[in-house]
Design goal:
3 domains; Rossmann fold; Methyltransferase, Methionine Synthase (B12-binding Domains), Chain A, domain 1
């Protein structure tokens, strides 16, 4: 996946002119050029820029940070799997400071990679351990809220996507309290150029339909993590379509395996 310079600047909190200076004067990255002349930054470019910013934020001068950029920290984890294991260990000890330090020092990944390789697998493992009785409810809530905070920070750093991008409204299926998967989807949509209207969980149906009618989003994304019947989902989909969005996407493990029929402008994404 490629990123435009304005997206990189928003994600990292680095002014566009600073990014250009790092590229031209210090060759920190060499982004590709599209046919229209725009820069396209790769995942590797994003990782190097994030690593350089972390070094500067930790007090290094630019010259020092540049010399350290390609040198791994002696105590940094070697892989994303190791990072994940150490973050989980810290969170089980209710040590959020240590967990945050591990995330900041141990990886230099794009938001997409952080979601797919760190936060979502971590949450899945925590859910399985809780279901098997190896974690308490308090531990599960603590770790889930830690991940929610980090993913929410991503969405905030992106400004919920470009101001004039196509609108996507993101909400959780009525009665389903789990909003973290939807937060991750919202970050990915913002990175893809959408302007995200995030409603989360527990939005009354009437309020949701009113929001759709008022803002006319091109897409409505509904997260379904708890099991629901096909008849209930189909009825809900029809009510959403009647309110006027361009497309409705339902996604999540809670969607029924059978009984969901093809409908115009509706996508079932398990």
């Amino acid at each position: 996946m490629g990123y435009q310079i304005k997206t990189i600047a928003s994600m990292l909190g680095i002014p566009r002119n600073t990014l250009l200076a790092w590229e031209r004067r210090h060759s920190v990255v060499q982004p590709a050029r599209l046919a229209n002349g725009y820069r396209e930054y790769s995942e590797s470019d994003l990782g190097r820029l994030r690593a350089l910013k972390n070094l500067l934020d930790n007090g290094h001068r630019l010259s020092e940070a540049l010399s350290l950029l390609d040198q791994p920290e002696p105590d940094a984890p070697d892989s994303i799997l190791e990072v994940r294991d150490q973050v989980l260990e810290a969170l089980l000890q209710i040590d959020r400071e240590r967990a945050t330090q591990l995330i900041m020092r141990g990886i230099s990944l794009s938001y997409n990679r952080q979601l797919d390789a760190l936060y979502f697998p971590l949450l899945e493992e925590v859910g399985q351990q809780w279901a098997n009785g190896r974690l308490s409810v308090a531990q599960e809530h603590f770790i889930s809220n830690f991940c929610r905070e980090k993913i929410t920070a991503m969405l905030l750093s992106l400004g919920h996507g470009p101001e004039h991008g196509p609108r996507v409204l993101c909400a959780v299926y009525p009665g389903d309290p789990h909003d973290i998967p939807l937060l991750g989807v919202s970050v990915k949509m913002a990175l893809s150029g959408y302007r995200v209207l995030f409603l989360g969980a527990n939005t009354p149906i009437d309020a949701l339909l009113e929001m759709i009618q008022e803002h006319r989003p091109q897409k409505v994304c509904i997260s379904v993590t708890l099991p629901v019947s096909s008849s209930a989902v189909l009825l809900f989909a029809r009510s959403l379509l009647a309110s006027g969005p361009g497309e409705v996407v339902f996604g999540g493990a809670g969607l029924p395996e059978n009984g969901l029929v093809d409908m115009p402008r509706v996508t079932w994404a398990r």
